[in-house]
Amino acid sequence: MSTTLRSARKEDIDHLLAISSEHELKTKNPERIRAEGFLVSAYPREVYQRNLKHITIAEVNGEFAGFTLTFPSEETPPEVAPDVARIQTVIGAAPFFLIKQVATRVKFQKYGVGRAMYERHLSGQKVPAFAPIVLQPPNRNLVSIAFHERMGFKQAESIRDEHGDEKSGLWCWTPAES
Questions:
Q1: What confidence category does residue 37 fall into, taking pLDDT thresholds of 50, 70 and 90?
Q2: Residue 10, Cβ density class (10 Å: 0-12 exposed, 13-18 middle, ≥19 buried)
Q3: CB-CB neighbours of 150 under 10 Å
């Protein structure tokens, strides 16, 4: 299998929406969630269109396999303001890199597609990278947690609900730890 990474184009939007809906939490049963992971923040077409320059596409043998949506701290759009505020509670006003979404088509999971996209983003990175992950029971995103930890991320922060259960977490990768 040959994985190619490239910048997103307008004609990729339908593929992005299809992968996002394939991974959207509300569309999955608990068994699929445990096996495949999920996205909470599936965005509408307009958000992806406005942020094309921040989307990396992965293709396997010419077939659309996955994408990442990422932002350097100085280019974060309003849609990620809550994540930016959380990151700033951890590092203050220092620069950072936000990995807002990573999604790989189910048939390409376990083939290194997500790893290839992350390695591209983290290679040469001089600032910490952050990835928010939903933890709320019973849908703890164990697939995403395991993936991020394999990539060198560590949990930096969590938000708890009124019962003390973790709702979401913020995982951090630092250049020195890679």
A1: low
A2: exposed
A3: 11
Range of the domain at 47: 3-177
Question: Which residues fall within 8 angstroms of residue 144, CB to CB, at 6 or more apart?
Answer: 37, 38, 102, 131, 133
Distances (CA, A) of 32 to 29, 43, 73, 93, 177: 6, 21, 33, 38, 32
CATH number at residue 82: 3.40.630.30
Express each pLDDT in 78-122 by its tens digit.
Answer: 999 999 999 999 999 999 999 999 888 888 888 899 999 999 999
DSSP string, 51-100: TGGGEEEEEETTEEEEEEEEEEGGG--GGGHHHHHHHHHHHTT---EEEE
- DSSP state at residue 133: E
Q: Global pTM?
A: 0.87
Two tokens, residue 88: 């700033």
> CA angle at residue 74 from 86 to 84, to 5 degrees?
10
pLDDT digits 0-9 by tens, 39-55: 556 788 999 999 999 99
Q: How many structural domains comprise the chain?
A: 1
How far from the centroid of its chain's Cα atoms is residue 123's Cα? Answer: 16
